[in-house]
């Protein structure tokens, strides 16, 4: 059983939103995109207090969800409420290419279209393994009861989803 409250985390460009959408289609769990709670359409962000209120409302609105996004400041709070965590722990180059490949694409998980490379954002991705990954691994150690699934390559995530598809088809 997957659980009724799932987090999907990982570096930007790892494919969190794509994975979350596919998982949502297979499980019928509603999706909560943290980027939609944090970003305005004009590429400005809301204050932490507003984001926190939106996050609390979103989590309280339903007992069932897939939540896509890192936002490490709130990860402890979200971990307390989830049952399973998918960590897309991919190599930096895979994540950088993921961001480049989505440029110009309308996406349901962000309120604007990325049209050009943001050097600061790309640097964040480059330093993710040194800056953010250790924090996630520490949380994994602190919360082993949360049923963590770690994918190191896209092919692993794809195979997992395919297994769910086949299992669902077998039940139809």
Automatic annotation (TrEMBL):
Family annotation (PANTHER family): TOXIN (PTHR37816:SF1), YALI0E33011P (PTHR37816)
- On whether Transferase is a keyword of this UniProt record, the answer is yes
Q: Does the keyword Metal-binding apply?
A: no
* Stated name of the protein: Adenylate kinase
The portions of this protein that span the membrane are: none
Q: Which keywords label this protein? A: Kinase, Transferase
- Which Gene Ontology terms cover its molecular function? kinase activity
Spell out the InterPro entries in the cross-references: Cytidylate_Kinase-2 (IPR052922), P-loop_NTPase (IPR027417)
